């Protein structure tokens, strides 16, 4: 173990400078306001949880959990998602609140990527959970809200791919009964979106002609409404069929929301989160190679905390959206007010007045006028009155500059 | 070590339910907007830092640092304040940005109070740092901004007590030269605000009459402008005198800000933060027994990160202010829209329209009208049109209820 150097931060975490923070906070505000418009109310859970409770129940695979030892030797996890903590709250503090519960959050989450440079160990998620409603309406609501949230965040172009874990499990169970390893190999290819590998594995399995055709046909079950109809024609058992009917109903509701254009049905989609039990989805922005949101139905998680209930939700990967989001920055007009001691009160009153009007005002006391003016300020500051324009002074840009000095009655 | 139980959270951390979160976020928004108005721009630093860098430089005493071991055996700290991380950023990412730097933050911070039930191990701070300006103007600016921030947060009544570490160190050094232990005992009493104990210790020290009188007189150096004048009359060395002159100038600037009414000079005040070098202050809300903000000048911290610079700043204890802050909650009007499948599209269009107007709208698909109406909804839901009022349904309160069913053309 080598000692960290002077300014070193732990690997995978970063500092955000004002421009990035302003944008991140703008996205956060727009998205949370959107979620509030759909009746979702914010909750806040701790950054740290016990590994043995929320850690184990979380969706994050064990080796990606950010585990730490506290001074008593107990394993602590830095929260890896907010879904499991919300399940804990729904089952404890909110246990007497009737369903459905609509909750939202904006929080930093953590992954153990310390060994992998370039992966983020801490990032922000903004999401919702809809707990206590098993219906296709509920699943459609969270997808429609994900779409509304991506729009609110200013993501200019995106698609949502929707699949169903229950359908995939049914299909593989029906076609490859008792062959757990073969099922896992195929699912792993789907998870990686490696269709070439999927076909290779299929070939190696030396399946009956009809089974081979059906499993290869899965790769073509991606598209719009017609996919639901084609999937219903498959010779699958009732479980898989039920999953498809659920998706079809959901598709209809998405039509009523007017958002079908943003949605693809993709029956090869397998959520990478272990607790999903039904519909799962991911959102892709056209400029990015990774999902900007993911979600799905998790009907078994709440039971782990003692209050069994169906649930569905999603999280936006807020930090990742920084690159693509086009949100207005709402930058205030910036003013600089410089003053000599004798006119301090006037100058600070002027500052207070401009702040009340919404300007961002920096004040600076100076010994005498001319002080520091040559140090980067240029002639602009010597102008006889406040002027609109763009002035650079000590590394900052100002739209307006006022000078209160001893020489005259009015600011110059 | 006993295994944590079902829903247990680590000791000292808590969940915040929607009402509290709404208030906390409102305070956060108002305070950050206020800080932006004074030219301070937000930055964001990681939750975790290495103990050997930022941990050691932080203001928090070693036993209160939230220390954890990562999987490589390196000691990690959960951030205990944002001042030290900002010093790191000012000296690295922002090393080419000229001074002064005005930075703000809102962040959760951590303390190792796991053993002490009732103390908060995680809480929020909202604060600023003004780096690169040694003047009394800069100290007055952060105090005036602290006052503006407390007002923005809706704290109805508060006072700021201002002292000076340099004065205290000078006074004790002059009167008790070479008697480090005696100095420490007296300072400890001041830190605890235990004036009875202070007098007791003074008695035990058996000092010369004039020294005893001077040190006891310190306890009366609390008040307004007159304190500055009285302190200047003390027979202290140049260091302590310089400190008082700085305070007097600061007091004048606070007058120009028009905020002297909120400020007391209290020369017994000793910041509990080890890195303070000059003026220190604490804000007290009249209803609370603990400070709601604290700050001070720390001219030696930046040097630890390789960019020596004077600096001053403060942090509001945002979570603690929840109890006393009176901020408008900005609650949206809440509407419930229920619909049968045949009128889904109309109902969801109505919801979209109301959301665009700023309402919070919950929708619910129902099999047929009457469904669930008896389960807590009462007659209100059966009313023939949308009505303003207060309706309780499934644990939530709505201002308006709309029903779209098969029986008529209009919502009922």
Structural features, described:
Two copies of one chain form a homodimer. The first copy, chain A, has 412 residues and is α+β, with helices and mostly antiparallel strands. Chain A has twelve helices and 16 strands. The first copy, chain A, has helices at 18-37, 51-57, 83-91, 136-152, 165-175, 180-191, 195-204, 209-217, 225-232, 238-257, 318-321, 344-356; strands at 41-42, 48-50, 66-69, 75-78, 101-110, 122-131, 158-164, 222-223, 263-266, 279-285, 291-297, 311-317, 334-339, 360-365, 388-393, 396-404. In chain A, strands 1-5-6-12-11-10-7-9-8 form a nine-stranded mixed sheet, with helices on both faces. In chain A, strand 3 and strand 4 form a beta hairpin. The longest helix of chain A has 20 residues, at 18-37. The interface between A and B is large, with 95 and 95 residues.
Overall mean pLDDT of chain A stands at 87
Task: Tell me the structural class of chain A.
Answer: alpha+beta
Taken from the alpha-carbon principal axes, the silhouette of chain A is elongated
Largest interface summary? A-B, 95 and 95 residues
Q: Count of helical segments of chain A? A: 12
CATH H-level superfamily of the largest domain in chain A? Bira Bifunctional Protein, Domain 2
């Amino acid at each position: 173990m080598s000692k960290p150097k002077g300014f070193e931060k732990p690997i995978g975490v970063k500092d955000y400078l004002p421009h990035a923070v302003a944008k991140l906070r703008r996205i956060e505000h727009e998205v949370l306001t959107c979620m509030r418009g759909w009746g979702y109310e914010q909750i806040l859970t701790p950054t740290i949880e016990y590994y043995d409770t929320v850690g184990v129940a979380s969706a994050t695979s064990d080796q990606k959990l950010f585990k730490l030892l506290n001074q008593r030797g107990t394993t602590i996890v830095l929260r890896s998602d907010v879904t499991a903590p919300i399940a804990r709250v729904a089952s404890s503090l909110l246990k007497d609140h009737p369903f459905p519960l609509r909750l939202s959050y904006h929080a930093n989450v953590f992954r153990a990527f310390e060994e992998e440079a370039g992966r983020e160990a801490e990032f922000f998620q903004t999401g919702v959970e809809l707990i206590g409603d098993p219906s296709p309406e509920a699943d459609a609501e969270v997808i429609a809200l994900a779409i509304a949230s991506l729009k609110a965040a200013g993501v200019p172009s995106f698609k949502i791919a929707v699949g169903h874990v229950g359908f995939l499990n049914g299909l593989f169970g029906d076609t490859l009964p008792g062959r757990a390893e073969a099922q896992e190999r195929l699912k792993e290819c789907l998870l990686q979106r490696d269709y070439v590998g999927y076909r290779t594995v299929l070939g190696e399995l030396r399946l009956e002609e009809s089974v081979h055709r059906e499993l290869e046909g899965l790769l073509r079950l991606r598209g719009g409404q017609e996919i639901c109809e084609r999937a219903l024609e498959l010779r699958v058992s009732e479980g898989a069929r039920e999953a498809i009917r659920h998706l079809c109903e959901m598709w209809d509701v998405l039509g009523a929301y007017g958002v079908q254009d943003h949605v693809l049905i993709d029956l090869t989609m397998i959520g990478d989160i272990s607790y999903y039990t039904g519909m799962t989805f991911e959102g892709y922005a056209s400029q990015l190679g990774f999902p900007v949101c993911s979600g799905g139905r998790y009907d078994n998680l709440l039971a782990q905390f003692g209050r069994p209930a169906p649930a569905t939700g999603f999280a936006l990967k807020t930090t990742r959206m920084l690159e693509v989001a086009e949100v207005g920055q709402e930058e205030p007009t910036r003013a600089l007010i410089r003053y000599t001691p004798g006119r301090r009160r006037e100058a600070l009153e002027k500052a207070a007045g401009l702040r009340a009007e919404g300007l961002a005002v920096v004040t600076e006391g100076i010994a005498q006028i001319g002080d520091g003016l040559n140090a980067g300020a240029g002639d602009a500051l010597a102008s006889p009155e406040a002027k609109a324009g763009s002035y650079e002074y000590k590394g900052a840009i100002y739209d307006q500059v006022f000078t209160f000095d001893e020489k005259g009655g009015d600011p110059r």
